Amino acid sequence: MTALLDMDQLLDQMETGLRQVLEHRGVESPVLIGIRTGGVWLADVLSKRLDIEEPFGELDISFYRDDFSRIGLNPRVKPSSLPFDTEGRDIILIDDVIMSGRTIRAAMNEIFDYGRPASIILATLIDLGARELPIQPDVTGRKLALDAHQRVKLRGPDPLRIELQEAGQ
Amino acid sequence: MSSAETSTGNSLKITGGRLYDGEGSESENIALLIRDGRIAAMGEAASRTRADETISADNCVIAPGFIDLCCNLREPGNGQKGNIASETRAAAHGGFTTVCASPETSPVNDSSAVTHLIRDGAASRSPIRVLPVGAITRGLEGDLLSDMAGLTAAGCVAVGNGSRGVRNARILRRCMAYAQTFGLTVMFSPENQALAADGYAHDGLVTSRLGLLGIPEVAETAAVMEMLLLAEETGVRLHLSQLSCARSVEMLADARRRGIAVTADVAMHQLAFTEDALAGFDSRFHVRPPLRSESDRKALIAGVREGVIDAIVSQHQPHDTAAKQAPMAATESGLSSIESVLSLGLELVEMNELALSDLIRALTTGPASVLGRTARLAEGEPADLCLFDPEAFWAPGAQTLVSAGRHAPVTDRELPGVVRLTLAEGRKAWQQPAG
Amino acid sequence: MTANDASPHHLQLTRDGQLRHFLTLDGLDRALLTDILDTADSFIEVGERSIKKVPLLRGRTVVNLFFESSTRTRSTFELAAKRLSADVLNLDISTSATSKGESLSDTLLNLEAMASDMFVVRHSQSGAPHFIAESVTPGVAIINAGDGRHAHPTQAMLDMLTIRQHKGQFEGLKVAIVGDVLHSRVARSQIRALNVLGAEEVRVIAPGTLLPNDVESLGCKVEYDMTRGMSDLDVVIMLRLQKERMEGALLPSEREFYRLYGLNQEKLALAHPECIVMHPGPINRGVEIESAVADGPQSVILNQVTNGIAIRMAVMSMAMGGQVAERQHKLSERGQA
C-alpha cells in the first residue's frame, strides 16, 4: 500500500496542480499557509518548489475547532504564526488530509480573523472523500478510498512519508 | 444478697463479655444482675439467678456508663440544632449515661429558672442523667457574677463560662474567689481572646498555606498560665476544659505536682485529628479550640495515658446543616461528636496509642472524680453501664446518627465499636436494633 | 490519623488529570502549569490579530461572581471571556444579598437557575471558591479570582508568564517577594508556582509581623533585611501594602516601612543588573516602590496586563474543556452500562 503512495509523485502532482490553478486565476504573488502539523511540513516543501520567497504561515486551528463541546481543548495548542498581512492577499491553504471538511472551515474562519484575503486556494495531499461540508480542494495529490478500519497519517518532516494504519493498531 | 436465688419482677441479667470497672481492673465472663435500677448481684450469685430478660454480652465489653463533662444539648434554644430529647438519645447511642449540659443555651443557664427548665426537660424526655453546668457570669458575658449559690441549689454541678473566655483577669479572679467560698468547681476553656482575635484555625502549617486566620497556641497557654496562678491564689477547684496544646499539658502536670487543685479534659477529636483535617477547607473540622499539630496531639494522648488529663469529653456541638455549609470563616464551630467518641477512641486503642483501660477510665472514673461522683460497677451501685462490641463496625451517616447534627467527624468510612446496650439506672437508654 | 481526604487537587482535576476548576495551584504539577503558560502564549498571539476573538466558548455563559469588588480583575476576566466568545454576566454581590444575611448557599441556588457554565469567583473568605466548587451542579467550572488570604492563582500564573517572557525559564532563578506576605493571597500562589516551576530560590522579605507562621513551610527563605535580601536577585516582586496594617499594630508607619522595605534605585542596584521588577498592582508609589523604579527600565509592571488576559483565556478554556471532556466520559460510561 505504501508503495502506491510515492511521496515525490504526490508532491509533483500538487506542484503541477497549483501552478495550473495560479496561472488560470492569474495569481502572481501568493502566500502559503500550512495547517499544523502536516500542512506546515507540506507548505515548507511546496514553498521551495513554487519558488515563493515570502515565509509561509502556520495555523493552529485548536481555538476554532467545532468539536470543543465534545472533546475539550487540545492540550498542545501552539500559537498560530502568520508572518504577513493577510488583507487583500491570495492565499494557498495547505493541509495533509481532507475528509469531513471541518478542519478547513475552522482554518478559513481563523484566517478571516486576521483580515480579509483576496482569495483562498485549497491544496491537500490526500482526499479521503466522506465530506460533511460543501468544501472541495482545488488541488489534490491523490484521492483515496479507505476501508472503515483504515486511517492515513502523514509522518515527517524529513523524510515525509504516509502511514496507513489499521484501526486498533 | 439473700434473695438472689429467686427471680423477682423486672430484672435483667447480662452474661458473658469482658468487664472493665474504670479503675484498671478487668474480668472475663462475669454475670451481672440488675434489679430496681441497681446492680443486684455480680458473678456466681448473678449467674445462678433467673431474670426476666437475659442479654448475652459475648464479644462485648461491659463498662460503666460514660460521663461527658461537656455536651451541648441545645435546650433551651430554638430547636433547629437539636433538643434534650434528641441529644440525650444520641448520647445514649454513644454509650453515655451522664452528660453535663453546657450553660451555652439560649437563654444562657445563668439562673435557677433555666436550670429547672433543663432538669424538668431531662426528667421527662431524657433516657440518661443530665447534670447542668451553670454560667459563672451573667449571660456568659464575662462582666457580672451570676447567682452561683442559687444555681448550685437548683442543681448545677459546676459553674463555668462555656467555651467563652473571661476577657478581664480581675473578673476571672473574682469569679474564682466567689466560687471558692461555696466549694464549687469552676470550668473554664482557656483562651486569651485578644490573642485569639478573629482566628478560627490553628496558627500553623495548614493555616499558612490555606490563608486561614490563625489562633496561636499562646492564646491557650497564656490563659492556662493565668488561670493556674489565679486558682493557686484563690484556692478554687479549677477544671480546665478542652485543652489543645502540648505546652498546656506540661503546665498542668507542673501545677498538679505543686498541689494545685486542678483537673482537665480534652475533646476526643483533639486526640484523633490534627490541623491536616482542614486541608480541603473541610468546615466540619472548624472547632474551638482548633485542631493543632501532630506533636500537640501526641502530647494530649500522653496526658490522658498518664492521667494528667482526667477526662475525655465529646464537646458535642450539634448544628443545623446551614450552620456548617459555608466557607470556613462563616461557619459555626463544633462537631456532632458524641456518637463517635467511643469509636474514635477504639481506633486509638487499635493503633496502640491508648490502652483500652485508659480510654474507659477517661470516659468514666476520670470525669466522675472531677464531679465528685463515682462510676463503679459493683453490687448496690446504680446500674449505669454500657455494653459495646469493639470488633463490630458501623457507618456513621444520616441513617445511623441519632443527633440532630449530621456533621459527625467521620462519615466516609466505617468505624469500630458498636454500642449494643446502654443502661441508665437500670433502664434501657439505648439498645441496638436487632439485625 | 487524618480526616477524610478532600484535598483541593482532587476537586479541580478530572480523572485523567485535566483541569476542570481552577481554585489553587496546590496539587497542580509542573506539566500542567507549563501547559497553562503555553496555552496563554497562543492567546497572546490571538490578541495581536485584527479580530482578537476565538469561538471556543461560543454559546456559553460565564458569570463573574464578585463578592468583593475589584474593577480591575473583573474587567480582565470579562475581556478574556468575551475574547473566547462567551456571554458574560457581571454580578457584583459585595454590597447586596450576602451582606444582608443571605447565605452563600442560597445565593448559589438562585444562580443555578441561570444555567451558566462557569463562575469566576472573588470572595473575601479563604476557601469560598472551593466551597462553591463542591456545592455547584456538575459541569459548571469554577475559577478562583482571589479568595481571602488563600490564593489568587490567575494572578500568580500571569506573573509566571511575565517572568518566563523575560528570563526564558525558571531554573536557576532567584526571586524575592517583598512586603505584606501575611495578608497576601497573591504571594501564597506565587511561592507555590515558583517552587513547582523550578525556581532556584524564593525569598520573602518582610518584618515578622507581616509573615505567616511557619512561612518557610510554603517553600521559601525568610529575610528581614532587604539590603541583604536583594543580592543576586533575578526577579523582585513587590506586594501592595494596605493602609489598615498600621491600625492593627502590624507596622509603625508607612514612612518606616518604605525606608526599610520600599524598593528604590539604590536597593535595586544590589540585585542582578538584569533583575526585573514586578508588582501585582495597584501600586502605592512611595509606600512600596519609588516612582523612578516603577517606571524605570527594569520594571515590567505594564505588560503584566496583556498577560493577564491571555492567562485568564487559557485557564477558562482549559477548565471548560475539562468539564466537557468529563461530561463526555460520563455519557460514554452510561452508554456502556
Description:
The complex is a heterotrimer of chains A (169), B (435) and C (337). Chain A has 169 residues and is α/β, with parallel strands linked by helices. Chain A has one domain (3-21, 30-166): Rossmann fold, CATH 3.40.50. Chain A has helices at residues 7-25, 38-49, 68-71, 102-114; strands spanning 31-35, 57-59, 90-98, 119-127, 139-143, 150-155, 161-166. In chain A, helix 4 links the parallel strand 3 (90-98) and strand 4 (119-127). Chain B is α/β, with parallel strands linked by helices. Chain B has one domain: TIM Barrel (Alpha-Beta Barrel). Chain B has helices spanning 44-48, 84-93, 112-125, 148-154, 169-181, 193-196, 205-210, 218-234, 246-257, 268-272, 294-305, 321-324, 341-350, 356-363, 365-370, and strands at residues 11-15, 18-20, 26-28, 32-35, 38-42, 53-56, 61-64, 66-71, 96-101, 129-135, 158-160, 185-188, 201-202, 214-215, 237-240, 262-267, 311-313, 385-394, 415-424, 427-431. In chain B, the strands form four sheets. An eight-stranded parallel β-sheet of chain B has the order 8-9-10-11-12-15-16-17. Chain B has a six-stranded mixed β-sheet with strand order 3-2-7-18-19-20, with helices on one face. A four-stranded mixed β-sheet of chain B has the order 5-4-1-6. The longest helix of chain B has 17 residues, at 218-234. Chain B is globular, with a radius of gyration of 21 Å. Chain C is built from 13 helices and nine strands. Chain C has helices at 8-12, 30-46, 71-83, 104-112, 128-135, 153-167, 185-197, 226-229, 244-247, 254-261, 265-268, 291-294, 304-336, and strands at residues 61-66, 87-92, 118-123, 141-147, 174-178, 201-205, 221-223, 235-238, 276-278. In chain C, the strands form two sheets. In chain C, strands 7-6-5-8-9 form a five-stranded parallel β-sheet. Chain C has a four-stranded parallel β-sheet with strand order 2-1-3-4, with helices on both faces. The longest helix of chain C has 33 residues, at 304-336. The model of chain C is unreliable at 1-8 (pLDDT under 50). Chains in contact: A-C, B-C. At the B-C interface, helix 7 of B face helix 5 of C.
